Amino acid sequence: MDIHQMKVFFGLVNYGTQSGFLARGLRERGIKAFSVTSYDPFERVTDLTLKHSGTNLIEKLYNYVWNKLYLFHCFFYYDIFHFYAGKTLTKSQWELPFYRLFGKKVVFEYLGLDVQKYKYSVENFKYTNIVYRISEERAEEHDYYVSERLRWHKKYADLQIVCAPLYSPFVPSSTVLPLGIDLDEFTYSPKSEQNNKVKIMHAPTHRGNKGTKYIIDAINQLKDEGYDIEIMLVENVSHNRLKEMYKECDIFVDQILSGWYGTASIEAMALGRPVVCHINKEFYKYIDYGDIIPIIDANPNNIYNVLKDLVENKVDLKKIASKGRYFVNKIHDLDNIVNEVLKLYNKKL
Questions:
Q1: How far apart are the first and last CA of the chain?
Q2: What angle do CA 2, 178, 209 make, to 5 degrees?
Q3: CATH number for region 183-331
Q4: Are 122 and 130 spatial neighbours (Cβ–Cβ below 8 Å)?
Q5: Strand locations in the chain, DSSP E?
Protein backbone atom coordinates (compact mmCIF):
# COMPACT_ATOMS: atom_id res chain seq x y z
CA MET A 1 0.00 0.00 0.00
CA ASP A 2 1.35 3.42 -0.98
CA ILE A 3 0.27 5.70 1.83
CA HIS A 4 0.96 8.77 -0.33
CA GLN A 5 -1.88 7.72 -2.62
CA MET A 6 -4.32 7.42 0.27
CA LYS A 7 -6.62 9.98 1.84
CA VAL A 8 -6.65 9.84 5.65
CA PHE A 9 -9.50 10.86 7.95
CA PHE A 10 -8.81 11.72 11.62
CA GLY A 11 -11.68 12.10 14.10
CA LEU A 12 -14.02 12.61 15.76
CA VAL A 13 -12.30 13.35 19.09
CA ASN A 14 -9.36 15.76 19.40
CA TYR A 15 -7.95 14.82 22.81
CA GLY A 16 -4.61 16.52 23.31
CA THR A 17 -4.96 17.98 19.79
CA GLN A 18 -3.76 14.63 18.46
CA SER A 19 -6.28 14.48 15.62
CA GLY A 20 -5.47 17.99 14.41
CA PHE A 21 -1.71 17.64 14.82
CA LEU A 22 -1.39 14.30 13.04
CA ALA A 23 -3.52 15.41 10.11
CA ARG A 24 -1.34 18.49 9.72
CA GLY A 25 1.84 16.46 10.12
CA LEU A 26 0.84 14.02 7.39
CA ARG A 27 -0.09 16.86 5.04
CA GLU A 28 3.40 18.26 5.50
CA ARG A 29 4.67 14.91 4.19
CA GLY A 30 2.54 15.22 1.08
CA ILE A 31 -0.32 13.00 2.28
CA LYS A 32 -3.96 14.04 1.96
CA ALA A 33 -5.10 14.05 5.58
CA PHE A 34 -7.93 15.91 7.30
CA SER A 35 -9.18 16.12 10.88
CA VAL A 36 -12.90 16.35 11.63
CA THR A 37 -13.94 16.72 15.25
CA SER A 38 -17.02 17.20 17.35
CA TYR A 39 -17.57 20.40 19.31
CA ASP A 40 -14.53 21.17 21.49
CA PRO A 41 -14.93 23.77 24.28
CA PHE A 42 -11.13 24.01 24.55
CA GLU A 43 -10.79 25.15 20.92
CA ARG A 44 -7.94 22.82 20.03
CA VAL A 45 -6.46 22.86 16.52
CA THR A 46 -8.52 20.93 13.96
CA ASP A 47 -9.43 21.23 10.28
CA LEU A 48 -13.20 21.13 10.66
CA THR A 49 -15.53 21.17 13.65
CA LEU A 50 -18.94 19.60 13.17
CA LYS A 51 -21.90 21.87 13.69
CA HIS A 52 -23.03 22.06 17.30
CA SER A 53 -26.53 22.45 18.75
CA GLY A 54 -28.53 25.49 17.59
CA THR A 55 -30.66 28.32 18.90
CA ASN A 56 -33.97 26.91 17.69
CA LEU A 57 -35.53 23.68 16.42
CA ILE A 58 -34.97 24.46 12.73
CA GLU A 59 -31.29 25.31 13.27
CA LYS A 60 -30.77 22.19 15.37
CA LEU A 61 -32.38 20.04 12.69
CA TYR A 62 -30.30 21.68 9.97
CA ASN A 63 -27.06 21.10 11.92
CA TYR A 64 -27.98 17.48 12.62
CA VAL A 65 -28.74 16.74 8.96
CA TRP A 66 -25.64 18.62 7.76
CA ASN A 67 -23.39 16.61 10.09
CA LYS A 68 -24.90 13.29 9.00
CA LEU A 69 -24.60 14.08 5.29
CA TYR A 70 -21.04 15.33 5.68
CA LEU A 71 -19.92 12.19 7.51
CA PHE A 72 -21.68 10.08 4.87
CA HIS A 73 -19.58 11.89 2.28
CA CYS A 74 -16.43 11.21 4.35
CA PHE A 75 -17.09 7.48 4.30
CA PHE A 76 -16.83 7.37 0.52
CA TYR A 77 -14.11 10.01 0.13
CA TYR A 78 -11.40 8.77 2.52
CA ASP A 79 -9.35 5.55 2.35
CA ILE A 80 -8.00 5.31 5.90
CA PHE A 81 -10.04 6.17 8.99
CA HIS A 82 -8.06 6.92 12.15
CA PHE A 83 -10.65 7.02 14.92
CA TYR A 84 -10.14 8.24 18.49
CA ALA A 85 -11.77 7.30 21.80
CA GLY A 86 -13.52 4.27 20.33
CA LYS A 87 -15.87 6.37 18.20
CA THR A 88 -16.70 6.00 14.49
CA LEU A 89 -18.86 7.89 12.00
CA THR A 90 -22.07 6.60 13.60
CA LYS A 91 -23.10 6.39 17.22
CA SER A 92 -24.01 2.68 17.10
CA GLN A 93 -21.08 1.86 14.80
CA TRP A 94 -23.29 -0.20 12.52
CA GLU A 95 -21.14 0.84 9.56
CA LEU A 96 -17.96 -0.96 10.73
CA PRO A 97 -18.33 -4.03 8.46
CA PHE A 98 -18.70 -1.76 5.41
CA TYR A 99 -15.21 -0.24 5.63
CA ARG A 100 -13.60 -3.52 4.67
CA LEU A 101 -16.32 -4.20 2.10
CA PHE A 102 -15.42 -0.94 0.35
CA GLY A 103 -11.66 -1.56 0.63
CA LYS A 104 -11.02 0.95 3.41
CA LYS A 105 -8.73 0.65 6.43
CA VAL A 106 -9.72 1.30 10.04
CA VAL A 107 -7.43 2.42 12.87
CA PHE A 108 -8.60 2.83 16.45
CA GLU A 109 -6.59 4.93 18.89
CA TYR A 110 -7.86 4.53 22.44
CA LEU A 111 -7.55 7.30 24.99
CA GLY A 112 -8.90 6.17 28.37
CA LEU A 113 -12.38 5.24 29.53
CA ASP A 114 -13.11 3.92 26.06
CA VAL A 115 -11.05 0.84 27.05
CA GLN A 116 -10.26 1.05 30.76
CA LYS A 117 -12.25 -1.39 32.86
CA TYR A 118 -13.37 -0.74 36.39
CA LYS A 119 -12.93 -4.19 37.95
CA TYR A 120 -9.47 -4.79 36.52
CA SER A 121 -8.32 -1.32 37.58
CA VAL A 122 -9.44 -1.50 41.22
CA GLU A 123 -8.10 -5.04 41.59
CA ASN A 124 -4.71 -4.48 39.98
CA PHE A 125 -3.75 -0.83 40.57
CA LYS A 126 -3.03 0.62 44.01
CA TYR A 127 -4.21 3.99 42.77
CA THR A 128 -6.73 4.50 40.00
CA ASN A 129 -8.79 7.39 38.70
CA ILE A 130 -11.62 5.23 37.39
CA VAL A 131 -13.45 5.24 40.73
CA TYR A 132 -14.02 8.97 40.21
CA ARG A 133 -15.28 8.51 36.65
CA ILE A 134 -17.47 5.42 37.01
CA SER A 135 -19.63 4.70 40.05
CA GLU A 136 -19.50 1.27 41.65
CA GLU A 137 -23.16 0.81 40.71
CA ARG A 138 -22.34 1.36 37.02
CA ALA A 139 -19.09 -0.61 37.03
CA GLU A 140 -20.44 -3.91 35.72
CA GLU A 141 -22.43 -2.21 32.99
CA HIS A 142 -19.40 -0.12 31.97
CA ASP A 143 -17.06 -3.13 31.83
CA TYR A 144 -19.54 -5.12 29.76
CA TYR A 145 -20.00 -2.27 27.31
CA VAL A 146 -16.22 -1.82 26.92
CA SER A 147 -15.70 -5.56 26.39
CA GLU A 148 -18.42 -5.78 23.77
CA ARG A 149 -17.20 -2.73 21.89
CA LEU A 150 -13.60 -3.98 21.88
CA ARG A 151 -14.77 -7.36 20.62
CA TRP A 152 -16.61 -5.58 17.80
CA HIS A 153 -13.60 -3.41 17.02
CA LYS A 154 -11.13 -6.28 16.97
CA LYS A 155 -13.25 -7.99 14.35
CA TYR A 156 -12.99 -5.08 11.91
CA ALA A 157 -9.97 -3.00 12.92
CA ASP A 158 -6.79 -3.15 10.88
CA LEU A 159 -4.77 -1.50 13.65
CA GLN A 160 -5.39 -0.77 17.34
CA ILE A 161 -3.35 1.84 19.19
CA VAL A 162 -3.30 3.13 22.77
CA CYS A 163 -2.05 6.61 23.65
CA ALA A 164 -0.30 5.41 26.82
CA PRO A 165 0.89 2.09 28.26
CA LEU A 166 -1.66 2.53 31.05
CA TYR A 167 -4.23 1.16 28.59
CA SER A 168 -2.15 -1.67 27.11
CA PRO A 169 -3.54 -4.32 29.50
CA PHE A 170 -7.04 -3.64 28.19
CA VAL A 171 -6.14 -4.03 24.50
CA PRO A 172 -3.54 -6.83 24.32
CA SER A 173 -3.14 -6.54 20.56
CA SER A 174 -2.49 -2.79 20.66
CA THR A 175 0.61 -0.71 19.97
CA VAL A 176 1.60 2.22 22.20
CA LEU A 177 1.82 5.48 20.25
CA PRO A 178 3.05 8.32 22.51
CA LEU A 179 1.11 11.56 22.46
CA GLY A 180 2.72 14.19 20.26
CA ILE A 181 3.06 17.97 20.46
CA ASP A 182 4.38 20.53 18.00
CA LEU A 183 7.57 21.76 19.67
CA ASP A 184 7.59 24.84 17.46
CA GLU A 185 4.72 26.08 19.63
CA PHE A 186 6.66 25.58 22.87
CA THR A 187 9.81 27.64 23.28
CA TYR A 188 11.96 26.28 26.08
CA SER A 189 11.79 29.01 28.72
CA PRO A 190 12.74 27.83 32.22
CA LYS A 191 12.41 30.30 35.06
CA SER A 192 15.57 32.44 35.02
CA GLU A 193 15.31 33.34 38.70
CA GLN A 194 13.56 31.56 41.51
CA ASN A 195 11.52 33.96 43.61
CA ASN A 196 10.76 33.21 47.23
CA LYS A 197 7.14 32.47 46.36
CA VAL A 198 6.72 29.15 44.56
CA LYS A 199 3.84 28.98 42.10
CA ILE A 200 2.36 25.50 41.75
CA MET A 201 -0.02 25.02 38.84
CA HIS A 202 -2.70 22.37 38.49
CA ALA A 203 -5.08 22.29 35.51
CA PRO A 204 -7.76 19.62 35.92
CA THR A 205 -10.35 18.92 33.25
CA HIS A 206 -12.01 16.64 35.83
CA ARG A 207 -11.07 17.12 39.50
CA GLY A 208 -11.77 13.58 40.60
CA ASN A 209 -9.88 12.17 37.65
CA LYS A 210 -6.75 14.17 38.53
CA GLY A 211 -6.83 13.74 42.31
CA THR A 212 -7.29 17.49 42.73
CA LYS A 213 -8.54 17.22 46.31
CA TYR A 214 -5.31 15.60 47.50
CA ILE A 215 -3.19 18.17 45.66
CA ILE A 216 -5.06 21.17 47.07
CA ASP A 217 -5.03 19.70 50.60
CA ALA A 218 -1.26 19.17 50.42
CA ILE A 219 -0.61 22.72 49.20
CA ASN A 220 -2.90 24.23 51.83
CA GLN A 221 -1.10 22.25 54.54
CA LEU A 222 2.25 23.59 53.36
CA LYS A 223 0.89 27.15 53.30
CA ASP A 224 -0.43 26.71 56.84
CA GLU A 225 3.06 25.65 57.89
CA GLY A 226 4.48 28.91 56.57
CA TYR A 227 5.77 27.95 53.14
CA ASP A 228 5.46 30.78 50.62
CA ILE A 229 3.36 29.02 47.98
CA GLU A 230 0.74 30.16 45.51
CA ILE A 231 -1.61 27.68 43.88
CA MET A 232 -2.66 28.26 40.29
CA LEU A 233 -5.82 26.22 39.83
CA VAL A 234 -6.58 26.52 36.12
CA GLU A 235 -9.93 25.34 34.79
CA ASN A 236 -12.22 25.99 31.83
CA VAL A 237 -9.73 27.95 29.73
CA SER A 238 -8.87 27.64 26.04
CA HIS A 239 -5.85 25.63 25.02
CA ASN A 240 -4.02 28.76 23.89
CA ARG A 241 -4.58 30.39 27.27
CA LEU A 242 -3.42 27.25 29.04
CA LYS A 243 -0.12 27.29 27.13
CA GLU A 244 0.52 30.84 28.32
CA MET A 245 -0.27 30.02 31.93
CA TYR A 246 2.30 27.21 32.08
CA LYS A 247 4.97 29.91 31.83
CA GLU A 248 3.80 31.58 35.03
CA CYS A 249 4.33 28.56 37.28
CA ASP A 250 7.42 27.05 38.90
CA ILE A 251 6.03 23.51 39.27
CA PHE A 252 3.26 21.81 37.33
CA VAL A 253 1.22 19.07 39.03
CA ASP A 254 -0.74 16.89 36.61
CA GLN A 255 -2.59 13.87 38.03
CA ILE A 256 -1.73 11.65 41.00
CA LEU A 257 -4.14 8.75 40.46
CA SER A 258 -4.21 7.25 36.98
CA GLY A 259 -0.60 6.06 36.80
CA TRP A 260 0.57 7.89 33.67
CA TYR A 261 1.04 11.37 32.29
CA GLY A 262 -0.94 13.16 29.59
CA THR A 263 -0.64 16.05 27.18
CA ALA A 264 -0.57 18.70 29.90
CA SER A 265 2.55 17.14 31.43
CA ILE A 266 4.23 16.98 28.03
CA GLU A 267 3.47 20.63 27.27
CA ALA A 268 4.70 21.80 30.67
CA MET A 269 7.96 19.84 30.29
CA ALA A 270 8.44 21.26 26.79
CA LEU A 271 8.34 24.80 28.21
CA GLY A 272 10.79 23.91 30.97
CA ARG A 273 8.58 23.28 33.96
CA PRO A 274 9.23 20.41 36.41
CA VAL A 275 6.25 18.05 36.42
CA VAL A 276 4.76 16.07 39.29
CA CYS A 277 2.55 13.14 38.33
CA HIS A 278 1.82 9.59 39.43
CA ILE A 279 3.80 7.11 37.31
CA ASN A 280 3.07 3.41 37.72
CA LYS A 281 6.31 1.67 36.76
CA GLU A 282 4.44 -1.56 36.05
CA PHE A 283 3.62 -0.04 32.67
CA TYR A 284 7.28 0.25 31.69
CA LYS A 285 7.12 -3.25 30.23
CA TYR A 286 4.99 -1.91 27.38
CA ILE A 287 7.49 0.77 26.32
CA ASP A 288 11.25 1.19 25.82
CA TYR A 289 11.73 4.68 27.30
CA GLY A 290 10.63 4.24 30.91
CA ASP A 291 14.12 4.76 32.31
CA ILE A 292 14.40 8.31 30.93
CA ILE A 293 11.05 9.70 32.07
CA PRO A 294 11.99 12.76 34.21
CA ILE A 295 8.61 13.20 35.89
CA ILE A 296 8.55 13.38 39.68
CA ASP A 297 6.34 10.57 40.91
CA ALA A 298 3.67 11.35 43.49
CA ASN A 299 0.48 9.77 44.79
CA PRO A 300 -2.22 10.70 47.33
CA ASN A 301 -0.14 9.30 50.19
CA ASN A 302 3.05 11.24 49.50
CA ILE A 303 2.07 14.35 47.52
CA TYR A 304 2.64 16.53 50.61
CA ASN A 305 6.19 15.25 51.11
CA VAL A 306 7.01 15.46 47.39
CA LEU A 307 5.91 19.09 47.14
CA LYS A 308 7.61 19.99 50.42
CA ASP A 309 10.91 18.58 49.15
CA LEU A 310 10.65 20.50 45.88
CA VAL A 311 9.82 23.78 47.63
CA GLU A 312 12.75 23.35 50.04
CA ASN A 313 15.20 22.38 47.27
CA LYS A 314 14.47 24.94 44.58
CA VAL A 315 17.92 24.56 43.06
CA ASP A 316 16.93 21.16 41.66
CA LEU A 317 13.99 22.52 39.66
CA LYS A 318 16.12 23.87 36.80
CA LYS A 319 17.94 20.55 36.41
CA ILE A 320 14.65 18.68 36.29
CA ALA A 321 13.28 21.17 33.75
CA SER A 322 16.24 20.59 31.42
CA LYS A 323 15.70 16.82 31.50
CA GLY A 324 12.01 17.33 30.73
CA ARG A 325 12.63 19.25 27.52
CA TYR A 326 15.15 16.64 26.34
CA PHE A 327 12.65 13.86 27.03
CA VAL A 328 9.83 15.57 25.15
CA ASN A 329 12.10 16.25 22.19
CA LYS A 330 13.13 12.59 22.06
CA ILE A 331 9.76 10.89 22.68
CA HIS A 332 6.88 13.30 22.05
CA ASP A 333 8.02 15.61 19.25
CA LEU A 334 5.31 15.63 16.57
CA ASP A 335 7.76 14.84 13.77
CA ASN A 336 8.77 11.64 15.56
CA ILE A 337 5.15 10.67 16.16
CA VAL A 338 4.26 11.24 12.50
CA ASN A 339 7.17 8.96 11.56
CA GLU A 340 5.84 6.28 13.90
CA VAL A 341 2.33 6.60 12.46
CA LEU A 342 3.66 6.15 8.92
CA LYS A 343 5.63 3.08 10.00
CA LEU A 344 2.52 1.58 11.57
CA TYR A 345 0.38 2.34 8.54
CA ASN A 346 2.89 0.80 6.15
CA LYS A 347 3.37 -2.26 8.34
CA LYS A 348 -0.20 -2.97 9.44
CA LEU A 349 -2.52 -1.60 6.76
A1: 7
A2: 135
A3: 3.40.50.2000
A4: yes
A5: 7-12, 32-37, 48-49, 80-84, 105-110, 159-162, 175-176, 198-202, 229-233, 251-253, 275-277, 296-297
Rg (CA), the chain: 21
CB 41 within 8 A of CB 67: no
How far is Cα 174 from Cα 168, in angstroms, rounded to an integer? 7
Choices 3.30.60, 3.30.460, 3.40.50, 1.20.120: CATH for 3-180+333-348: 3.40.50
Strand partners, 9: 34, 81
Residues of the chain below pLDDT 50? none
Domain 3-180+333-348 matches domain 183-331 at the CATH topology level: yes
pLDDT at 42: 80
Q: Are 257 and 211 in contact (CB under 8 A)?
A: yes
What whole-number distance in Å separates Cα of residue 268 and Cα of residue 248? 11
Q: Are 335 and 203 in contact (CB under 8 A)?
A: no
Nearest to 229 by CA among 242, 220, 238, 240: 220
pLDDT in tens, 228-264: 999 999 999 988 899 999 999 999 999 999 999 999 9
- The verdict on whether omega for the bond into residue 12 sits within 30 degrees of 0, i.e. cis, is yes
Question: Is the Cβ–Cβ distance between 296 and 327 less than 8 Å?
Answer: no
Greatest alpha-carbon span in the chain: 67
Q: Are strands 275-277 and 251-253 parallel, antiparallel or unpaired?
A: parallel
Neighbour order of strands in the sheet with 159-162:
48-49, 32-37, 7-12, 80-84, 105-110, 159-162, 175-176
User: Would strands 80-84 and 7-12 be described as parallel, antiparallel, or unpaired?
Assistant: parallel
CB 10 within 8 A of CB 23: yes
How far is the C-alpha of 202 from the C-alpha of 122, rounded, in Å? Answer: 25
Identify the pLDDT of residue 3: 84
List, in order, residues 6 or more apart from 266 with CB less than 8 Å away. 179, 181, 328, 332
Cα(115)–Cα(143) distance, integer angstroms: 9
Helix ranges restricted to H, 159-262: 207-210, 212-224, 239-246
Q: What share of the chain is helix, strand, coil (3-state, %, to 5)?
A: 50, 15, 35
